[in-house]
Write a structure and sequence with these properties.
The protein has one domain: Rieske [2Fe-2S] iron-sulphur domain (Rieske Iron-sulfur Protein), CATH 2.102.10.10. The chain is about 10% helix and about 35% strand. It contains one helix and twelve strands, in the order ββββββββββββα. The longest helix is centred in the C-terminal third of the chain and has 12 residues. The structure holds FE2/S2 (inorganic) cluster. The site of FE2/S2 (inorganic) cluster has 9 residues, from loops.
């Protein structure tokens, strides 16, 4: 699925859920990338449950949704750092974490709350470069390898 850039707010409460993708477009064991108001987020389907996590590896900018999914762990395709998609914790080598975002499914759509990340999403030097590159590659289907 190509990178999806959507920003229509669905709710204006303390939480602000924004449509990220159609639920049936992210099948179990797969992942997609979305850009929501400047946030580059990976949406992962782990055994039918969806999770939203920062999509840029803090090491040197690997695009995580294109990595291998091992249960609830996403493996960076560049140097194989591992992240828990539910908590954002770096499983290996440790000592870092990624922002995760609350998520819900409504009317067949995956909605991500941009107001309540687990930690402030990091905007390191890799984010702009990687996000731009992926946006230019919309013809490429980004799927986690299984
Ligand atoms: S860029 Fe992700 S592990 Fe190196």
């Amino acid at each position: 699925m190509p990178l999806q850039a959507q920003s229509a707010p669905v709710s204006q409460e303390a939480s602000r859920y924004v449509k990220a993708a159609e639920a049936d477009s992210v099948t179990p064991g797969n992942s997609v990338a979305v850009k929501l108001e400047g946030n580059f987020i990976g949406i992962h389907n782990v055994d039918g449950e969806f999770y939203a996590i920062d999509n840029i590896c803090p090491h040197v900018g690997g695009v995580l949704h294109s990595g291998k999914q091992e249960g609830g762990v996403i493996v960076c395709p560049i140097h194989q750092w591992k992240f828990d998609v539910k908590t954002g914790e770096c499983i290996w080598p440790g000592e870092c974490e990624l922002a995760t975002f609350p998520l819900k499914v409504s009317g067949g759509d995956i909605l991500v709350d941009l107001e309540s990340p687990s930690v402030p999403p990091k905007q390191n030097r890799f984010h702009a470069c990687v996000t731009d590159t992926v946006e230019r590659s919309e013809s490429i289907r980004w799927r986690a390898r299984s």
